[in-house]
Amino acid sequence: MKRLVLLAEDDERLAQLVRQFLEEHEFDVVVEGFGHNVPRQVRALNPDLLILDIGLPGMDGLSICRDLRPEFTAPILMLTARDSDLDQVLGFEFGADDYVIKPVEPRVLLARLRALLRRSGAVSEEDTPLIAVGALRIDLAARTVTLASKDVSLTSHEFDLLAVLAQKAGEVLSREYLFNKIYGRPYDGLDRTIDVRISQLRKKLGDDSEQPQKIKTIWGRGYLFVADVW
User: Which residues does 165 contact at the CB level (< 8 Å), separation at least 6?
Assistant: First the structure.
């Protein structure tokens, strides 16, 4: 089954190259070059994945990501020439699932898209469909999370990360292990996206960022999901 990608990119030549390549690999692609039109297109098309350039005219990609994320649960990939750490951190904090810097090898982009679309890849179909830890409920089938009966809005990778942590409660999980489980590729030793997503999970789950009690950092080893504090 073909997946629908909304590509928000104002560079017409690049947009057509990306579109042609993805359509050759079983994607349907709609291109939008003006920032203000992207939210409307998302609501009209409900794409399986959104590729966002940061430097869009009319409305920048970071603002679009921030505004759409509460209602749009499919993966968002930032594709941009901006390579500053601040832009990457803001992208993840606003809800992006991945961040790719131009120029990018087409097959690398394709691999990243496919990894994003394996949204349940971190969770085996044989796993228990519901994880209940205190007041926390993680529904693996519906991909929903509630805490004290209140919905918790998570990105696809935040959900996968929480599911992996909760399934192995009480075990210290290394950054390398988590990165491989969530992204399906080897950890390069430098990427800090797992750290950013842990920070976001703590915020959304009411964990103290200065002295976390629910998802603890075990220095030099990794992260620990504590089961008896929820």
Answer: 173, 178, 215, 223, 225
Residues 6 or more apart whose CB falls under 8 angstroms from that of 116 comprise: 49, 75, 77, 97, 98, 156, 157
Q: What is the pLDDT of residue 119?
A: 56
Q: In this predicted structure, what is the pLDDT of residue 111? A: 83
Question: How many Å apart are CA 4 and CA 44, to the nearest integer?
Answer: 12
Contact 102, 54 (CB under 8 A): no
Q: 0.70 cut: is pTM over it?
A: no
The two beta strands, 222-225 and 215-218, are: antiparallel
Residue 97 domain-assigned (yes or no): yes
Tokens of 186: 């080897």
Q: Chunked in runs of 10, what are the mean pLDDT values of the chain (230 residues)?
A: 89 92 91 95 92 93 91 88 75 86 84 74 51 88 87 88 90 89 79 90 92 93 90
Domain hosting residue 150, numbered range: 130-229
Specify the CATH number for the domain of residue 218: 1.10.10.10
Residues 7 and 95 in one domain: yes
CA 22 centroid distance within chain: 20
